[in-house]
Amino acid sequence: MKASDYRKQVEQDLSRREEGMAPPQGEAAPDLEELVKSLADSGEDPEAREKALKMLRAASFLGARFNEVRPAFVEALRAVAVGDDDKLRHSALDVLSNLKDEFAQEKLQAGLLGQIKPLVPTAVALGMLARDDHASLSNLAKDVLESGADKFAKAQAARILGSDPSAQALLEKILGDKSEFREVRRASAAALNSLDPEAFVREGRKILEDDSDFKDIQTTVRGALQRAGKPVPAIGNAAVRGGAGGLLGRLFRLIGSRGRTG
Amino acid sequence: MRIEEIEGIVLSARADPGGIETLLPLLEHSSRVYAGRSANEADRIRGFILASFAGSDLSERALPYILEELETGRSPYSLAGAARALHGRSSITAETRGLISKAIRRIENADRIVSLDRLSQGGQSPGTSAVAELRKALDAPASHCCGHDPRPELPTAFPPDTAERLGPILLEDQDGERIAFGDLLGGRAAVLAFFYTRCMNPEKCSLTVTRLGRLARLAEASQWSRPPMILGLTYDPAFDRSERLRSYGAERDVPFSRTCRLLRTAGPFEPVTQALNLAVGFGEATVNSHGVEALVKAPDGAMRPLKNRRTWTEEEALSALKDALEEGQTAG
């Protein structure tokens, strides 16, 4: 589909949605200003605030009707994002991250760097930040990968590096590292494939030809190569080839003397 | 540079009547104040610097940057800063008024409260909304002159050796074919525009490449004896590999041919940036700020910007190509 046709389709969809969001005749439209006040009021019941947030989130597609309260809505979200209620904080940061809001990005990064108390867990923060390709997160992601972070955080960090060509060598290294968490290796595979499909094919074939590597990693790689229409080498798994050397490889995996699953 | 340092420099300049002039170089997209930052940070810094020109005698010299932002900017901060920079003007032209109105329509569903008085408080300072700043700028009386803003003098031609400096740089096109810049351009007229596929501003790169495609069709219809080259060069060569260039161009209806290509440098992009003094800044992984840039090259190698800091149409580019060809024939 051409970009111009896509643009027209989105505009039509937005118009239809705006019409669909209008309340039925005879029904009062939600008071958007009151909802924003409710959301921003730290003394209000958290459930009421969460409900206000959901209604405002839905109403934000109303276009011109919502524009008058949009700045105040974002300000309210920013206040909630650093507030005391965990669930509300997460919800607010989720909305702000979708908007690629700079305030939210700054606070999430500050939490990851230890400058403030983290607002959400590391993996969640990285996932939120990763929604913006232009958030300049490469150095942070590399630090997370080299730290003792949990596998979920490291996997998110690997995904972030899928937008940084200078991280290609690091992603190749992680993909080939059988001592790394498998979730992180899989994330690195996807990231490397996004950056440089030829490099992914090259590294992927090494994995498929390695009897001692994990079947689930090989399955992930095989699937990606097949979807890309690339020829895949014959299965190197000893269960197919047979023989003592292959059997030892299977034994090693069963014992779990290589790699981590967290 | 830390945000606090940049803020200190700008606030000092604001406090010193002669200091505002020192901020002009910081409006360039390639300025060091934006290097390594996220796009959002770069926009906020830019808006903060632009706002400093409000009521200043130097707002005329900042006008090209202000109009550039009003024409294609999408950040509430940078648009608010551009609007603030117009405050205090005795009048604004119909052209500027039109740009402000379009900017309001562009930003109104992404409006934010912005602070243009401080930089280091992470956006929590009280302020006005970007749309409010833009509407305030419309309050200035209408100018009774020609309707267009005066264009301060800016360089209109690249140094004579520019084509020669670019010559050895190796390029790769959307099909993976590699060729040196000099061999590609040869003795032909050319239009060269800049873009990158991860640009999130539809008024910039996506539109630029779409216009290149339209220009290529117009050029073909002109049936020149030696067709000009219609080229797009990515700011982001490490990410924009040939297959990405092809799909990006195909989605925008670019009629790829020997004379119409999307390209990347096979090596670092820096030599191109230096030779052409490009209006582009980079974050950690990709572009964080850039202008709308295109140049015209005559058959004899002379190069000049297609338009200074403003968007161009395929008709304007075609006209510039015709001028370049005629100049070449006259000189020959």
Gist?
Chain A has 262 residues and is mainly alpha-helical. Helix content of chain A is 66%, strand content 0%.
Number of helices of chain A: 16
Question: Ranges of chain A with pLDDT <50 over ≥5 residues?
Answer: 237-249, 254-258
What is the terminal separation of chain A in angstroms?
43 Å
Mean pLDDT of chain A: 85
Greatest interface: A-B, 39 and 37 residues
Instruction: Tell me, rounded to a whole number, the average pLDDT of chain B.
Output: 91
User: Which structural class matches the secondary elements of chain B?
Assistant: alpha+beta
Task: List segments of chain B where confidence is low: pLDDT < 50 over at least 5 consecutive residues.
Answer: none
Radius of gyration of chain A (CA) equals 24 Å
Give the % helix of chain B: 40-55%
Order of helices and strands of chain A: HHHHHHHHHHHHHHHH
Characterize the biggest β-sheet of chain A. Answer: none
What is the overall shape of chain B?
globular
What proportion of the residues of chain A form beta strands (DSSP E)?
under 5%
Q: What's the SSE pattern of chain B?
A: HHHHHEEHHEEHEHEHEHEEEEH
Strand order of the largest sheet of chain B: 4-3-7-6-5-10-11
By DSSP, the count of extended strands of chain A is 0
Distance between the termini of chain B: 51 Å
**Binned strand content of chain B:** 5-15%
What general outline of chain A do the C-alpha atoms trace?
A: globular
